[in-house]
Design a protein that fits this description.
The structure is a homodimer. The first copy, chain A, is α+β, with helices and mostly antiparallel strands and about 400 residues long. The first copy, chain A, folds into two domains: about 100 residues, Immunoglobulins (Immunoglobulin-like, Sandwich); about 250 residues, Rossmann fold. The first copy, chain A, is built from eight helices and 19 strands. In chain A, the strands form three sheets. An eight-stranded mixed beta sheet of chain A has the order 12-13-15-14-16-17-18-19, sandwiched between helices. In chain A, strands 4, 5, 8, 9, 10 and 11 form a six-stranded antiparallel beta sheet that branches. The first copy, chain A, has a five-stranded antiparallel beta sheet with strand order 1-2-3-7-6, with no helix packed on it. In chain A, helix 2 runs parallel beside helix 8 and helix 4 crosses helix 5. The interface between A and B is large, with 50 and 50 residues.
Chain lengths: ~400, ~400
């Protein structure tokens, strides 16, 4: 930090105190810039150096317009031309889902690219992160992200996964690659990692710097159910998840048949975030003949409990024999953002205490200043992928 | 058509006439079903057998909510719970962009998947088409659609294309394929053909039925400009399109280097819709050493003129020697929807009259009952692709 920067920070703080007595809004830094994920040519939403989000929309006959971000709603103010404008309090750096509320209607902000998360396709914003270079689109060789459609007999439905193949995959017809199966969280889908997760750019940059082994990444949809009978549908029975069976019996064989994989447990990893961490931990512990590396980002299978985990009973005693677990994993990796809400810190903490008690080696990473959101998971992938397939 | 169907159609017509004298709204068939391109679990928008679009949104404090589709706005009506519902007049079959208007704010309908077109990412709807089977997701081998990022020196910017590779492309390391360069229309982008255009599904189905030669399809972005100087930006000079240079000097060499193409004019085609038809006709006529097949969907380079085309001066006399043009093209193909508005029928008609006068052979196709929209262009691709690389 240089002195000019320090001076500016102090100057700004001083101005705030001077201009706004208690209870009055502070001044707002007028250095807003359009968000990096705006639609082409759209000036709003914008972000300033304080990490506030400002948006603006023409709604001449509306009586209230709100910006709904980070669990809070902020009133926008109408000008004489019918344009409503307003801003949020400072947000965590990284990517956030948000929406607008116009006279009680929750709608996407027409200014942004749309992202699938929180159970809907809707607006998102990027607050520039101090470490954003690791997921930036840079002048390095780029792999491909391919949409792969497949029929699933187990679910009786078409499904889709995205496949990252590293730079050079198409050119070198003989090379074979290890595979990471990488899952999204609840109310998200298979677009999460390739779009807001920026998995491809993170890998392109890591591989260019020779910090990661070139690998294939499969990003599928964690929602998979048995076809329901008419009786079940009439009774509104909650369908049973069969994602584990789909992963083991359909996805992995399809990928090994279609792509140039190294098709053995030594070269196969599985990871996920939140719900995906919970799912993939169950899958890996039930299928240790298939995987040798695991990554749990902001989630463990004891979720949502914060109670002590009993290795004798947890996941049918799969962690009972710590020596055996250590032998079976080349990498057991856990991550958490320092701003994550309950129950994540407690739940993951309880799980880690069990690992320690059992003498099970694992890598633990904390993402500074981020919550249960995508910057945490981008950083997790950066850290995790740099350790994969190296032992 | 069986008798039951005929009876139903007549019955409906009769009821309409009986119940609603001139000037009063007709009854509406209450057989609405959720649109095929709704977000998962979303019940609205819906489409009925008359091809009306009905939508519904919670907006308890709004004073007016409208459905804005096909150039008309339809008022929705509020119920006691604050939910607004209403429907349009019957629409053409196929895909349409649309939006909602809430108290003067134009926003996407939160029920649909979003599509880039009309200069924004926004709502779309599918009116089931009588021939929808040709672009349906079916149990046939599927190719891949891959996102390919590349740095463009000419525009000093990152660009993106989507690449369709046919079934078997990854498995057979020796096979090489002809290539079709396929362009979107104005205010659309490189997502148009792989998303709302369903280019991959049309090709998968054609190839499965052995009606098309397996080929690679490149779907790039038709907007490409020279980097602007500060003076030009200050003067708000309109940038000059350099898409032709980008196509010839950057895109084609990159694709031939990265993919298993048959890299000669005999196995290279170019086509586009509307603005893309205009652009690609100029590109093909300026680069006959590069291409041997052309497709113009709802567009020609004399657009928007409906005047007679003079071959001596049009495109620098490129159509002056009809015998030579016939020799140079394996396929010269034009398409138009029967419901397209001015100036498309007149403009394309004038161009065709010039071709006839010059004795230039071409294939002409009319899509029945469709306008300047995606069902026309899906049908164009079906017809055009089935003729490509066969002579």
């Amino acid at each position: 930090m240089n002195l000019t920067y320090l001076f500016l920070v102090c100057g700004v703080t001083f101005l705030h105190i001077q201009a706004f007595p208690q209870g009055v809004s502070p001044t707002i830094e007028e250095d807003f810039k359009p968000s990096a994920v705006n639609q082409p040519g759209k000036l709003y939403p914008q972000v300033n150096s304080e990490r506030r989000v400002r948006t603006s929309i023409l709604a001449p006959r509306a009586s209230t317009v709100q910006l709904d971000i980070g669990g809070k709603k902020y009133d926008l103010i109408k000008d004489t031309t019918g344009i409503w404008t307003g801003q949020s309090l400072p947000q965590d750096e990284g990517f956030h889902y948000y929406q607008l509320n116009i006279d009680g209607a929750s709608v996407p902000d027409p200014g942004t690219v749309y992202f699938y998360g929180a159970g809907r396709s809707g607006s998102g914003i990027e607050i520039p992160a101090s470490d954003q270079d690791f997921y930036a689109l840079k002048d390095v060789p780029h792999g491909l992200v391919s949409e792969n459609l497949y029929w699933s007999i187990l679910t009786n439905a078409w499904r889709r996964c995205f496949v990252y193949t590293p730079p050079g995959y198409l050119q070198d017809s003989k090379a074979r690659y290890p595979v990471l199966y990488l899952q999204h969280g609840s109310f998200e889908d298979e677009t999460g990692w390739p779009v807001q997760g920026k998995a491809n750019l993170i890998m392109d940059n890591l591989i260019a710097e020779k910090k990661a082994t070139p690998m294939i990444i499969i990003m599928d949809n964690g929602y998979a159910y048995k076809p329901q009978s008419k009786t079940e549908l009439d009774n509104k029975t909650r369908p049973e998840s069969i994602f584990e069976e789909v992963m083991i019996n359909e996805i992995i064989p399809m990928i090994d048949a279609k792509f140039k994989t190294m098709a053995s447990r030594k070269y196969r990893a599985i990871a996920g975030l939140s719900m995906g961490a919970n799912q993939t931990m169950r899958i890996v512990m039930n299928n240790l003949n298939k995987f040798s590396h695991y990554g749990g980002f902001s989630g463990t299978s004891n979720y949502p409990s914060e109670e002590a985990v009993d290795p004798a009973t947890f996941l049918d005693g799969k962690f009972k024999d710590g020596v055996m677990v250590n032998k079976q994993f080349n990498l057991f990796w856990l991550g958490l953002g320092t701003n994550e809400p309950k129950p994540f810190p407690g739940s993951i903490g309880a799980f880690r205490a069990m690992l320690s008690k059992q003498g099970i080696q694992h890598v633990y990473y904390e993402s500074p200043g981020t919550g249960h959101e995508w910057l945490t998971w981008r950083r997790d992938l950066l850290q995790f992928a740099s350790l994969l397939f190296k032992q």
